[in-house]
Amino acid sequence: MKVKIAYIDEPPFYWTGPDGYVTGSDIELADMVLRAIGVTSIEHHLTSFEEFLPGVQEGRWDMNVPIFVTAERAEQVAFSVPVWALGDGFVVHDGNPEALTSYTALAEHSGARLGIITGQVQLNSAKSAGVRDDQIVMFKDQPEAIAALLAGKIDAFAGTAVGNRVVASANKELEAVAHAMSRETGAPVGAFSFNKNNAALLQAVNEQLRKYVGSADHRARMAKYGITETEIDRVATAQG
Q: What CATH number belongs to 88-178?
């Protein structure tokens, strides 16, 4: 049995290493789950974020690496059970000279410019907090946005707090700032996504995820990539 899974370059979740090897926390999770359900060949397909949903809908690949679950996306694809819960944050210049600690703080700073990747949920979060269209600069991927930040073309890049820590650790000129979480809603969850007609694969993956997510082995593997208990506990389904 062969499964083709699409991903983008966004450490620590999924990326292509210098040797061409595809790795990351969600790549390792997918490999563990797919092997456990009898998949003998896994093909990783590098794509763009905006192609995730159309690609799996059109059958160009069988599943996508985890992305945030939204009602709008759920109209287009079938999501697995959640595999993580992640809060947002900014990557800013070291020392956070503009004091950009939240979407609201950025909205109140009229001259501040925010970089966001096309198609990602951070756009809605920013607009809901009052960030104006003329403050937002859209990018095709994370490397392009970070290059713009380093060049001073934007003042902050919005992404997951976990992913931002990785970006900042690789750039001494940058700093990661996590946003405060709402006690009522907590962090949004992410899941693998599938063509709605591929019920057999979705069911098999879900059965294994329910056994594995939250287990001791799962937690240990995710910790290697900086995914902590906080990101796992809300969606944990296994006992370990």
A: 3.40.190.10
